[in-house]
Amino acid sequence: MTDYGHELLFGTFISPTNADPQGPVRLAQLSEQLGLDLVTFQDHPYQPSFLDTWTLMSWVAAQTERIHISGNVLNLGMRQPAIVARSAASLDLLSGGRFEMGLGAGGFWDAIAGMGGPRRTPGEAVSALEEGLEIMRGIWDAGNRTPLRVAGKFHQVDGAKRGPAPAHDIPIWIGALKPRMLRLIGTKADGWLPSLPYLKDGDLARGNATIDEAALAAGRSPSEIRRLLNMGGTITSRSSGPLQGPADQWVEELTHMALEDGVSTFIAMGDDPDQIRAFAQEVVPAVREAVAAERRSAGTAPASARRGAKALAARRQGIDYDSLPPELAARAVEPGDREYGSVRHNYLRAGAPGLVLRPQGVDEVASGLAWVQKQDVELAVRSAGHGISGRSTNDGGVVLSMSGMRSVEVVDEATRRVRIGAGATWGEVAETLAPRGWAITSGDYGGVGVGGLGTTGGIGYLGRLQGLTIDHVVAAEVVTADGRVLHASRDKHPDLFWALRGAGGNMGVVTWLEIEAGVVGDVVYSQMTLDATDTVGLLEKWGAAVEAAPRGLTSFMVLGRGRGGQGPMAQLMTVIAAEGADVEPDEAIAQLELLADAGPLLGHQAQLLPYSGVVRKEDAHHSGGGDPSARGGLLTHLDQGTSRAIERLLGSGESYFTQIRATGGAGNDVAPSATAYAHRHQNFALTALATNQDRINQAWDAEIGPVMDGSYLSFDTDSRPERLLEAFPEPTFSRLRTVKATYDPSNVFRTNFPIPPADGA
Predict the structure, then answer these.
(1) DSSP 57
(2) Burial degree of 123 (CB within 10 A; 0-12, 13-18, 19+)
(3) Cα 615 from Cα 441, distance rounded (Å)
(4) What are phi and psi of 578, to 5 degrees?
(5) What is the DSSP string of 24-36?
(6) Res 263 pLDDT > 90
(7) Low-confidence winner among 69-73, 212-216, 579-583, 587-591 (lowest mean pLDDT)
(8) Strand 485-489 relative to strand 473-479: parallel, antiparallel, unpaired?
(9) Which of 226, 259, 282, 683 is the most exposed place for a label (fewest CB within 10 A)?
């Protein structure tokens, strides 16, 4: 018995004929409607009666929503591997991670040569395919900043720029029959994709044995390689041979191949819609049920739990990997996995966690949280991994990533209530809400995660108009340390709801937030460069202009020391918005002129665009960003004394990035006791990034400490205990300790500026 434990997948193999160009598209849509997992198309670029496969796959991806798409198999003999890799990554990004790579070395060499392609011997084709795999994987490795160089005999790249990274780890399934290709699959590929009509009795077993032997020799587990099968046949009322007979016969034969030959992906060949329906409705559910029952009886471990020698050697101390629940193991990423490089770091912080869990629902979050508490390592919870403080990764611990929970759903049109998964990004939120003319203030970058910012504060480009992001949160789903799933709001668990809005990371794992969006028309986004030679005068004038401006204006400033003979400069990023209407250009110009008067104007550009054009959807392929040290503080006004303190901080040379964000406005209408974020009179937030924590602490404490008025912990990496009372002044801090004692008495959530439970918990 050979069962590698992969989740069963079922798909169709559709001819890309062009006589009726929409015919293959309709069959792909039918496959999706019937609940199948995969639709595939053969690739013969020299065949004039076929549609171009890449074009067809792109069209089908745009005409479907869920089903995965693959060539079966793509002819690498006529395609440049680096271009294939970029095309695949692009289609994967555009389709939301639905592209899979079925690949072949090429065939029909007369036809290929007739189209201007190379003519290769079988041995040369295998060598070219192996070189192609290295190039494709190298292009997808966008986190590697070194240029890609592969000096192959048939395929070469010399300094190619890597990227883009695909939306998911695209598996490479290879169509093959001969021993050398099978050994290549075992060594370097992710799946074997033969066609049953070309196989003889025993070929599946012999092919598996060859692949498994090569995998073990390479330090891999044979279970790392999925076994797929293209199947010809007809579902009929009478049996006349293998896969020629009633649905019950198909169920028996496919179940046997799954359990005895390790096949986990069955692809039905043929273009008859009635046959596709019969396969999807009569065969697929029964095969799933039969295989699942047998696996339960036999105690078959899922493929994700089986690791090769190299992967096992990379595991970290303190983590019982083998006890990980199967539903989490299926998507977990370990240090030895190929995906590890894409999930280990966050935006600005390098990390080396021992395991990254990627739950897909609240039950899996609860399961993962319970399991982590039995391990002897630290826990980090990650929304999208953009946080400056870097608490969403660690070294040797477990990261609970919410990346699989990123839906954006309108639950009440009348109140504009939107339920947002904690792993979604604010760019995704803005893009979803833009067609309705809605917006939620949310920082200044679309790659920021909803769960992190939406439980901490949210000082954004609409902040003076709308207030903080947390001011519009009306409900949340939270998994607490003891595994309870609670819905918190003003009416349910109001103490927890209060704490979540400002100190949420200390109370549990938030899986979704419900937020009431505002009605916002097109906004003006201005980027202005000012001479900052007179830093104190610039800050005083800009600060006064911002405070006096209508609430629709929110402005952020970045101060630079100047390089290459240039003096110090200030970059202003300003949004002017109006509640319920588009901005009047003349009014916006008048407001911007007041900002421009703060200092000599060196450059300016402004655009009228939707809020989603300012906070844009971004791809979050994080590779660490230099591990900066950071300090952050709140300021009431930019008066002369405060402005001089900022000037002295800049003069110290310790801060290489200094930003001031305008806050206040509507945010200051909220009572300090209404949320765990109690800072409701300050008008500015100051952030400094540096290369050395001790030195920036000294400069900050000497210059900014005397003038700052509270702290916003999202922008601080100083872990000294006095930061807590700056962020949560009394009586907020004592109240938080009481809530902490109720919902996390064991202090499970302690890695992000920990709030100790009240005494006697």
Answers:
(1) H
(2) exposed
(3) 9
(4) -135, 135
(5) HHHHHHHHHHTT-
(6) yes
(7) 579-583
(8) antiparallel
(9) 282
User: CA gyration radius for the chain?
Assistant: 29
Please determine, for residue 646, whether its predicted confidence score (pLDDT) is greater than 80.
Answer: yes
At 314-343, the pLDDT tens digits run 999 999 999 999 889 988 999 988 889 889
Tracing tokens 């190298």 back to the chain, one arrives at 138
Specify the pLDDT at position 342.
87
CA distances to 254, 690, 691, 711, 726 from 627, rounded to whole Å, are 52, 9, 8, 21, 24
The contacts of residue 554 (CB under 8 Å, 6+ apart) are: 460, 461, 462, 463, 464, 465, 574, 575, 577, 662, 665
Closest Cα to residue 389, out of 751, 657, 749?
A: 751
Fold of 9-303: TIM Barrel (3.20.20)
Q: Which of 188-202, 447-461, 609-623 has the lowest mean pLDDT?
A: 609-623
**Encoded tokens for 488:** 């918190």
Q: What is the mean pLDDT of residues 537-558?
A: 97
Q: Tokens 């668990």, residue?
A: 493
CA 257, CA 702: separation in Å to the nearest integer? 72
H or E element at residue 132: helix 122-140
Residue with tokens 């490795």: 141
Residue 547 three-state SS:
helix
CB-CB neighbours of 486 under 10 Å: 16
CB atoms within 10 A of CB 299: 6
Q: What is the reported pLDDT for 82?
A: 97
Q: Is the pLDDT of residue 666 over 70?
A: yes
Q: Would you say the C-alpha torsion 421, 423, 424, 426 has a positive or negative sign?
A: positive
Confidence of residue 301 (pLDDT cuts 50, 70, 90): confident
Q: Is the bond into 731 cis (omega within 30 degrees of 0)?
A: yes
CATH class assigned to 523-727: alpha beta
Helix, strand, coil proportions of the chain in percent (round to 5)?
35, 20, 40
Mean pLDDT throughout 430-436?
96
Report how far residue 627's alpha carbon sits from residue 411's, in angstroms, rounded to the nearest whole number: 39
pLDDT band, very low/low/confident/very high, at 564 (cuts 50, 70, 90): low
Token pair, residue 51, equals 């549609």
Q: How far is Cα of residue 689 from the mean position of the Cα atoms in its chain?
A: 25
Domain 315-521 has CATH 3.40.50.10470: no
Cα 355 to Cα 340: distance, rounded to the nearest angstrom: 9
- Confidence label for 655 from pLDDT (cuts 50, 70 and 90): very high
Domain locations in the chain?
9-303, 315-521, 523-727
Most confidently modeled range among 121-135, 329-343, 611-625: 121-135
Tokens representing 114?
Answer: 């007739």
Spatial distance between the Cα atoms of 761 and 757, rounded to a whole number of angstroms:
7
Quick one: which H or E segment has residue 495? helix 494-503
Contact 598, 530 (CB under 8 A): yes
Amino acid at 180: R
Residue 505 buriedness (CB in 10 A; 0-12 / 13-18 / 19+): buried
- pLDDT of 477 > 90? The answer is yes
Predicted pLDDT at 760: 64
CA distance 344 to 622: 8
- What amino acid is encoded at 332 in this protein? A
For 57, the token pair is 């796959």
| Residue 708 to residue 718: CA distance in whole angstroms | 15
Q: How far is CA 694 from the centre of its chain?
A: 33
- Between CA 427 and CA 597 the distance in angstroms is 32
- Tokens 């907020």, located at residue: 732
Calpha distance 126→103 (Å, rounded): 12
For residues 369 and 346, give the distance between their C-alpha atoms in angstroms, rounded to a whole number: 21
Tokens of 496: 């927890």
